[in-house]
Fold:
Amino acid sequence: MDKQRADSYELHRREVARTLLADRTDDFLVVTGLGSPNWDATAAGDHPLTFPLWGAMGGAATMGLGLAIAQPTKRVMVMTGDGEMLMAMGSFATIAAQAPENLAIVVFDNERYGETGMQATHTAGPVDLVAVAKACGWPAAVQVTTEAELSDVLPVIKGTKGPVFVDIKVKAEPLPFVLPTKDGVHLKNRFREKLLGPDSLL
Amino acid sequence: MTENYAWARDIYDVLKDLDVRQVAYVPDAGHANLLKMCEADNVMRCIPLTTEEEGVSLAAGAWLGGERAVMLIQSSGVGNCINMISLANTCRFPLLMVVSMRAQWREFNPWQKPMGEGTRPTLEAMGVKVTEVDDPDLVGETVRSAGEQAYGWPDMAAVLLHQKLMPVKTFGK
Structure:
């Protein structure tokens, strides 16, 4: 384990979130994992077609899968953390078997459990999530460590035939909380109303 | 296991009536006939899971996108779902589970006992409405009632298929 490595990564997660979520259209559906990716997405701008999880650790990737299958003409991006994705290792296989072309999973990998005291995760050691995705047969799996690579990967996340996996190494840094509503019923209903129309709430 | 259980056809017909599109499962012998029917269906998408909790979050994602999902799992798999049920509970996502039971009736394998006997109390502890059915003639309508409430209210509902409905598994003994 190298517990200091992530202290010096170049990319800052809040800026990465802003980049990923800039200029979004209503054809772009977002699920975030719990904790920091939720706050990052909220800091970049709350949106009815973002479903930010406050719990359900390990569920973000397969939630994105169910959404991507239901909405094959939309692009679905799951934005989550390395700890959350490590709890969903089986999802790499489940998603690969379904091969959803419109799904991208993006991990903000700071090699830490950010909500609980910045303990090192397994990616601070030898665990390589990109290699996991490749071994599971994902057609696109890349790691990003620089601004230039982030620019290059944007069209991949937005449009390359998926499932797409992107591991973005981000600096381990303490950041202020930026919280969306924690009312899960509201988050669900606003998403469905925006995507499916008001009749979906009847 | 290859015998054609009429109740499996009844569940399939009900899932069609309810317009269920995503069928998430960890296979069990008790679901084998139903799974064959779902796999032969051009509208249903069968989704094998590596662990049952994936099905809870998958079903929530399906609902966000306007589709209905069902989970076909064994009683032992209920234990793998428990914390993820928080997602359905907190956000009131529909959740329909059809659970084939073990450790109830002529069970050969004692390792099935803890989770078999724990299935109902753990589901109920997480707020899931549990209905058990052991009459083959009532299986279809029991799933219909659970499904109508799950998708209509919305609510979390599990139908436990009693082990009497399944073939006895004796591991060659």
Q: What stands out?
A: Residues 147-159 of chain A form the longest helix (13 residues). The CA atoms of residues 48 and 161 of chain A lie 25 Å apart.
